[in-house]
Amino acid sequence: MNPAQSPHGALSTTGRSPDVLLEGRNLSRVFGRKTDLVAQALIKAGLAQPPKMLRAVDRVDLTIKKGEVVGLVGESGCGKSTLGRVIAGIIDPTEGELFWQGCDIRSLSSAERRQIKLGVQMIFQNPFASLNPRMTIEDVVGEAPRIHGFIQRSGKSSVEYIDEQMRRAGLPPALKSRYAHELSGGQRQRIGIARALAVQPEVLVCDESVASLDVSIQAQIINLFMDLRQELQLTYLFISHDLSLVEHISDRVIIMYLGRVVEEAPVEEIFSHPNHPYTRALLAEIPRLETTKRRFTALKGELPSPMSPPPGCHFHPRCPHAFERCKLETPQLKEVAPNHVSACHLNDAGQGI
Amino acid sequence: MNGFASDPKTMHSSSRALLDVRGLKVKFKTNRGEGTAINDVSFTLRRGEVLGLVGESGSGKSVTGMSLMGLIENPGRICGGQILFDGIDLAKLSDLEMERLRGKRIAMIFQDPMMTLNPVLRISTQMIETVRAHDDVTLVEARRRARDALGQVGIPRPEERLDAYPHEFSGGMRQRVAIAIALLHKPDLIIADEPTTALDVTIQAQILSEVQKLTSEYGTALIWITHDLSIVCGLADNVAVMYGGQIVEYGPVAEVIRSPRHRYTDGLLNSVPSRNRRGDRLRQISGFAPSIFSMPQGCAFRPRCSFADDACHQTPPLATHGNHAHRCWHPISSREGLGS
To answer: What ipTM was reported for this prediction?
Structure first.
């Protein structure tokens, strides 16, 4: 686990603050049909078309520091959930490296990798689909800590452990003999949280974790996340399309569009000085309580299919400022202000908007 | 922006409201007992007006919309009140009479457009069927109207897209198709039940801007059912906040947002992130909404309200001040509202 042992690890710590917990470099995730040997030969011989590939995450760099809340924002289909799953270790990246506290995860033994995976837990969007309907709450919360040896199979200490996890998530332990279908949506989401906490993670990846909840329940769960952050020094990757929530809870915000990161900055910076035209459009379209009877103006078009993304800057077909270069060349993330990077050619042309 | 008030249709129609719901009551009888989904709901709607109907799940907002469309089915029934639509009581109409109105003068848009669209029929088939259900026109004419409606909601190349199947459209486009179908007969009233909840922010803004154009161009009255107060803020003229089957607060949007009277409305507004300091705990409403089968006696919000006392065991009457009404024994006074 010593970072100095791995050449990548040594590299990752130079010039970066030592409190970087998780780092992804050049991460890509491609989905598509696997080709067998015959198919590969046919493709090589020009007798068959290579299968269509979907690049859900396209060369993304990401760092998460200890104790921070990183907001990941984008429209459906932009790859934010796939990136969240890669970070949580549920799926492997097709390309790129993932570092845990400066250590290349691929260089570790499978037992060590398992430990790291336990350290990053995911809380899903739909508490109705992510809980086994045939398990009692006690089993749902207790299964992982039992398997991974946090607690005994049975006994007083393990009962107490499970009660403790439920209380932390704001559930009365009296509910533990119930089944998920007997509980309300807010309570179910709390079970998902208790289940994640039960393996003592350091990072929680929340994928639209409050999107399906009622407004008043949403506020309760957000408060729970903020309390847990204090209590357990948790780090969060908070994936959401709800910008006002992200603005409230995050320290740093990453905006994704069609598999790529288009902008990243501390939260005050991005909401006060958005740079990328896509970010600006997103911010302009948040409905707010402060504006009554406004005229809604819409960004034209929709997210293109990730199966056939447009060349150059992915956003150019919808961008009101697009020019020739945007169609040809992919813009790179460049610093536009301290800690604020944006991928837009307008910044080069000296006409940054 | 003033298109709503100065719309020609509004001007030459009589001062009578297009929709006048009075004391509506809907009950559901199941093996868990009888539950009151809507209890004494009253509101009016003028032509060209947009009403935001806000509430959490189980508050009765969708059932209100469904009862206007005559879509309450067993085990539910309307067991009190009137729904006066242009002077006709919809609650008393026969199924056949309701069928003539539904889709013609009143249309509904649902949250999930796949509920409206038949997945195995082309869009053209479904739209032409809707046109010919009410108007005796030729196929060619019906197709022309369908194409125009698609164009109107901003679907590019409507002539080509007409022959596509629903699965060939994206979520946002499907919702546009559903809206186009609702528009085919230029209804007087559209009831939209959470139509943008499943959509992305940019697509939501596109749909909202189309809807705004339509209400101002045709003077269509609109009921927008949602759980999201901030959408209502941008869109509606008036807002009705529902809780436990009742409208607990009603009034002009700007006024309700600026100085809510009911404790529930206040709680909802305060839990919105932008009303809290960044990084602070949100001011939350504790507890959760009651089920219609175990409604608390008196004010339904009583168990979650920090101001509740003995008086709240009685159902509070609707108290009206000008055009701002509320149901609360301990309303927020305007002075208190300014202070917070």
So the answer is: 0.83
